[in-house]
Design goal:
This protein has 83 residues and is α+β, with helices and mostly antiparallel strands. Helix content is 49%, strand content 17%. α2 packs parallel to α5.
């Protein structure tokens, strides 16, 4: 929360200046349980700041990722969940 509150355009900045760090950021938005039950593992996706900005409007992160035109980034599990 703090990162996205301080830097609302972090997705845009990383897409433009450091695209290699985008998968690292997106991986950090996933929590996977270390415990499995019946061969399945619980997963939490933290998507709030990718969907809604601080003003309650639709966030531009999807637009920035689309403008980046990186097919590897578009198939990331977090982006697939958002879109």
């Amino acid at each position: 929360d703090i990162l996205f509150e301080r830097h609302e355009d972090i997705i845009q900045r990383l897409c433009l200046d450091a695209p290699a760090l985008m998968p690292v950021l997106l991986d950090g938005l996933i929590w996977r349980s270390r415990v499995t039950e019946n061969g399945q593992r619980r997963v939490n996706y933290y998507l709030k700041h990718l969907l809604v900005d601080s003003h309650g409007d639709f966030a531009k992160s999807t637009e920035w990722i689309t403008d980046n035109a990186d097919p590897k980034l578009v198939i990331h599990p977090v982006i697939c969940m958002v879109t």
